[in-house]
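hi! just following up on the protien thing from before. the input was this:
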Amino acid sequence: LMYADFERFLGDTPWTFFIKNGLEYDEFKAFDLRYNINSGLGYSFVRTDDLTLVGRFGAGVSREFGGPDDSWSPEALFGGDYEHQVTERHKLICKIDYFPEWDDFNNFRLVSDVAWEYLLDADGNLSFKLGANDRYDSTPNGRRPNDVNYSALLLYKF
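and the predicted 3d structure came back as:
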C-alpha cells in the first residue's frame, strides 16, 4: 500500500483543496495493482488544539491492473476525519473514505482507519500507536471483500 495525500487551506477559510493518491498491491485480490487519484474540497467543521472534524467530497478515477476489469472507473469521494486529543497523552484518530462509482453507487470501495496514540515522552517526541485499517471492495470478483490490517508503531516526531 502506498498513499499520498495533499491538502491546502483556501485562504483564511475553513475550506480546503485536496488530492488523494493511492497504489495498492495485494496478492490475494483478483487484480495485481489498483491505482486511484481523487481531488475535491474539504471543510473543517471543528479545528481546535484538541479536536478536529473535517468532511470532504470530490471525484476521481481508479483502475485495476492485471484483473478481470482493467478499465478506468470514474468515482465520487465522500470522506471525513476525526482527531481528538482526549488528554495530554491520549489521542483518538478515525478516518473514512467512501468511493462509489458514478454509474452505480452500489459498486464502491470503503477505506477506514482507526487508531489510538499514547504519548510516551513528556517532550512530545515519542509515541506508541495502535491502529487498524479496513479496505472494503463491494466487487471482489470471487475474493474476500474485506482486508483488515493491524499495526503497532513507535512514532518519533522531529
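The mean pLDDT is 93.
The CA atoms of residues 31 and 67 lie 4 Å apart.
cheers
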